[in-house]
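Q: My labmate handed me this sequence with no annotations at all. I'd like to see what the chain might look like in three dimensions before we decide whether it's worth expressing. Could you predict it?
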Amino acid sequence: MASSRVDLTSVAWRKSSYTNGDGGRCVEVADGVPGFVPVRDSKRPQGPAVVVTAGAWGPFVRALKAGELPG
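A: Here is what I predict for the chain of 71 residues:
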């Protein structure tokens, strides 16, 4: 069976503009992973990351901004 892992060892993480300083909504995304958008909790940088396909990322962000998803 082929591995479906994405190598995140050398990606550049950046904090979302929605990250705040009071301990909540601390989200980072990684750039430079062709076809995918890795997302992680900035309070736990050594913890797991969720890897979303690039095609799903745009609609997901638009739905969040429109209030269509719990945030």
